[in-house]
Amino acid sequence: MSKMRVYELAKELNIGSKEFMSRLEKLGIAVKSHSSSLEESDVERVRREFASDGVREVEEKRIKSTVIRRRAVRRPV
Q1: Rounded to the nearest 10 degrees, how much is the dihedral formed by the CA atoms of 51, 53, 58, 61?
Q2: Most buried residue, 18, 31, 34, 47, by most Cβ within 10 Å?
Q3: Is the pTM of this model over 0.85?
Q4: Vertex 76, ends 70 and 77: CA angle to 5°?
Q5: Cα atoms in the 13 Å half-sphere on the side-chain side of 3
Q6: What pLDDT, in 10s, does the model give residues 6-47?
Q7: Which residues of 37-56 are buried (b: 16+ CB within 10 A; e: fewer)?
Q8: Is 10 in contact with 16 (CB distance < 8 Å)?
Q9: Any idea what DSSP says for residue 16?
């Protein structure tokens, strides 16, 4: 496998490009835009990180007209 674009990997992991780029920054991987290329070693590192971490979604449920229950739900990657 060769280099991979940021937006391609973000699409594969079902996450938005901007959020994905901020997660890459936290991992210490510098990217300038969504069309930047990632090395194969970085791609594998990101896949391992997301596989162990999982992606969280917020589930909102309206209990009453004034009460909204928000829960973080893990979604498999």
Answers
A1: 90
A2: 31
A3: no
A4: 120
A5: 7
A6: 999 988 888 888 888 998 998 899 899 988 999 999 999 988
A7: ebeeebbebbeeebeeeeee
A8: yes
A9: -
